[in-house]
């Protein structure tokens, strides 16, 4: 390859390498990289590529020489650390591989190939729990970036490793989650948790989702073999009467909140306007706003709010809320401002249902669940399965408020409720341990 004497040779060589790699001209790209190093001896990308070529020839010592050179010049470069980990992995030095790969991921957490290789190293070191997390995070991160969804989205040389990682992650999570359920199997008997076992198999993709109403699609956990319906008859919930009898007292405390004695917050809790617009729409010149005054959220109790509304708080304590650490209950005054439309969406699981106690309901406000429209009536409870597609709107010029709370699906037994509680907590703990920081891939 010749470089024009009037051009910048470094820029020209880098452009040549990019073009050659895109065209699959590996030998030409290798030659261009060697020329580039004559001008820029510490160019990280060239050194990484040449090291990769040496490793492909099973020349690990030469690959290490190139990468050590790159590391001296670029000690914080995640790509250099990644390739050092890869070379040590190929050489069987799993401790060194894990150390370099962890350093690479500390700088660039979304490098899913580095995380896959970390899983291999950790497994070889006998660190099974850490390997499980690494494999799971690698696959999840890749799929979030549109990769490893199928053979077509996986590089041919990686397909077997990716399939192994998926199998390892599924088997490991199955063991972990099964262990959480075992004490309850011993207490209640295995037959009593048959449906929970099926729910777990569906969640892990080990059993296909059964044929269900197309309007229903849980985002997290589907519980099989229970009757599914958008709205539930009120006779299934004797405690509706308790809520309705207290509606006037609850409304009085609500009015104090709306008068400004206590602050409200956005229900969605997102800072990105585009994300909010995907959930809400305004009309008639009104800006969309869905506010909330939480008594419980994700299992956390808002003590100040409960103290400010003691009768409402006591009422919530008296009804059978779902209680799952870090997940439930969720109980709040839901404040839908004039002209706001909550767009169609679905909930996470059919193991629990949502109840509304309407407190302030102007005309032209409604809830649609599974295509069925319900018009709220002040003081009259309604319970529905939010895994059915649902939406709500306030087309009036006034604010609409309902008290929202979640309760167990009444078709689950006591044993199943206990098992779902332990299972969801364990899944949540595992997922939280595998969280990647937000940021670019």
TrEMBL record:
What protein name applies here?
A: Aspartyl beta-hydroxylase
What is the top-level taxon of the source organism? Answer: Bacteria
| Positions of TPR repeats | 78-111
Q: What's in the GO CC field? A: membrane
By sequence similarity, the record places it as follows: Belongs to the aspartyl/asparaginyl beta-hydroxylase family.
One Pfam family, short name please?
A: Asp_Arg_Hydrox
Q: Which residues form the Aspartyl/asparaginy/proline hydroxylase domain?
A: 248-410
Output the PROSITE patterns linked to this UniProt entry.
TPR (PS50005)
Native organism taxonomy: Bacteria, Pseudomonadati, Pseudomonadota, Gammaproteobacteria, Lysobacterales
Keywords of this entry? Dioxygenase, Oxidoreductase, TPR repeat
Q: Care to name a GO molecular-function term for this sequence? A: dioxygenase activity
Matching entries from InterPro entries are given as: Asp/Arg/Pro-Hydrxlase, Asp/Asn_beta-hydroxylase, IPNS-like_sf, TPR-like_helical_dom_sf, TPR_rpt
